[in-house]
Amino acid sequence: MSNPERKTNAQLVDMISQLKAQSRDTGVAVWRDVALRLSKSRKNWAQPNLSRVSRYAPEGSTVLVPGKLLGSGELTNGHTIAAYSVSNGAREKIEAAGGRFMTYGELMNENPTGTGVVILG
Fold first, then answer.
1. Residue 44: which residues within 8 A CB-CB, separation 6 or more?
2. Mind listing the pLDDT tens digit for each residue in 41-54?
3. Which fold has domain 10-119?
4. Which of 1, 34, 38, 109 is the most exposed, having the fewest neighbouring CB atoms within 10 Å of its CB?
């Protein structure tokens, strides 16, 4: 007997299953790691600010946030950032800095092997 699904948000449950399927299909551990982080309680999700992205993400990398990206701080260069959700201020600052925000599904389609992806959480 399988464990009952703890999450009630159908979109989130679907995204977790897509991440796990991508990990099985490609053999890349990045997608499975993010799926496991999103499976945990929401209070344990990462909520980094843009200042943390500027400080820790190397240039030219794609930043993956397993949670919500917040808009405090400045973004110094244009990063490609994927997160489950993003605040309006963070989205505006990313676009103003010449960066790009994408969903997990878009990132999995563009980069199925996860090369150059940095998990920030």
1. none
2. 999 999 999 999 99
3. Ribosomal Protein L15; Chain: K; domain 2 (3.100.10)
4. 1
